[in-house]
Amino acid sequence: IMASTIQQIETPKRARALDTSGNNNHGQIYSGRGxxxxxxxxxxxxxxxxxxxxxxxxxxxxxxxxxxxWRMLVDGRDANxxxxxxxxxxxxxxxxxxxxxxxxxxxxxxxxFADKWVRIVATYDGSTAKIYVNGIKAEMDASYTGESxxxxxxxxxxxxxxxxxxxxxxxxNHFNGLMSDVQIWxxxxxxxDASYDYLNPESIVLNRSGTSxxx
Length: 215
Known about the structure:
215 residues; mainly beta; six-stranded antiparallel β-sheet; 14 strands; globular
């Protein structure tokens, strides 16, 4: 006799490494997969024009091919430099632009960023801009503006956010490499958030107790 209600049994959404010791220290396996961008024509169009909050975070896993060029990660600026963008300035620098203000990393022992997976987190809390690489806060190039900045209001109404390309110029700054897990938040992550996110991919909201972030 068939039951009138059948419960659907789903397979796990992600593979696990099971701990057979009985201590339940099961591991979570991540594939390391990402979308491949050819550096010529590939990009993602979000189809959305939105105003970033003064407090915000942009996070992305990226593996750029080493070519020494300026390559776009995420861009939401218009032709008047109003908005936000995050780029690889070259193989060993990351540029985070808020309106016309550029914040750029310097070599702080993190090494070159090209040809390897790195987790990049850029945050702004209304007064201070920070860039974290693999959970570690990077040093800012003082020849630009340092960390304390006043970019003004983000008032763009025309920039459709692009991933892997300049937002307003279809021929400019295509990303060459792999990207995965792009996130944009309307709050500034803390240093602990950035560290936890790096050590626990895709788990910051659901599994980090005490975080102010909500799903």
